[in-house]
C-alpha cells in the first residue's frame, strides 16, 4: 500500500518538511495479497516531518468485500524516528486503516503499532501488532481479533541510480482464518528527480494461495509516483 510512503519514511531527516506524492500502481499489494483484484490503483500521500516526529495520511483505491466494488483505503499514521549513532535507527509508527463509504466500514477499520530497527537503511526489521484486524478467506473462515506481522527488508544500491530491494514477511492471522502465511518480494526502484519508480515481483507460500486463491498469486507490480 502506497509504496511512496515507504520510500519517504526510509529517508526521513530531522527537519520540518511538508511533502507528499501522487501516483499509480498496477495493483495494490499488501503483505503479499492483492487488495484491488489485480487492477490499477491510484494512490496518494501527504505527510509532515517535525524533528524526529512524522505524521500523514495516505490513500489508495481498493476493492474489499464480497461485492468487490471500487472503494478507498485511507491510512492515517504518526510516529517517531530514533537515531542510535551513525549506523542504527529505530522507528515507532501508529496507523489507523479506514474504508470510507464501505458498507462494512466499522468491521474493516483497524489499528496497528509497528516497531522497526534499521542498520544503515540497508536492513530493516519490523514487528507489527494489531488488536482488531478483520480478515476473511475463500474457505469461509473469518473473524476479528489480534494479528501480528514480521518483516525483514534489505536494500542494496546498484549502478545507474537503481536500488535493489528484497523482503520477507510472515502474517499471523490465526484468530481470523486459523493460520498465518509467508510472503516475499524482490525488485528494483529508482528516484529520478521528482519521480519514484518501483518494479517488484511478489509471491506467497502455498498456505496463502490455499486460503486466498487468486489474491495470493505471484505477480509483478509496477508503481510510479510524482513526489512533491
Descriptors for this entry?
Porin, 228 residues, disordered N terminus
Describe this structure in words.
By secondary structure, the chain is mainly beta. It has one domain (3-227): Beta Barrel (Porin). The chain has helices spanning 3-9, 105-108, 174-177, 206-212, and strands at residues 17-25, 29-30, 33-34, 41-50, 53-62, 71-84, 88-98, 110-119, 123-136, 142-157, 162-173, 179-192, 195-204, 219-227. The protein starts with a helix and ends with a strand. Mean pLDDT is 91; it is low at 2-6.
Can you summarize this structure?
The protein has a single domain (3-227), classed as Porin (Beta Barrel). It contains four helices and 14 strands.
Question: Which SSEs are present, and which pair or pack?
Answer:
Layout: H1 3-9, E1 17-25, E2 29-30, E3 33-34, E4 41-50, E5 53-62, E6 71-84, E7 88-98, H2 105-108, E8 110-119, E9 123-136, E10 142-157, E11 162-173, H3 174-177, E12 179-192, E13 195-204, H4 206-212, E14 219-227
Antiparallel strand pairs: 1-4, 1-14, 2-3, 4-5, 5-6, 6-7, 7-8, 8-9, 9-10, 10-11, 11-12, 12-13, 13-14
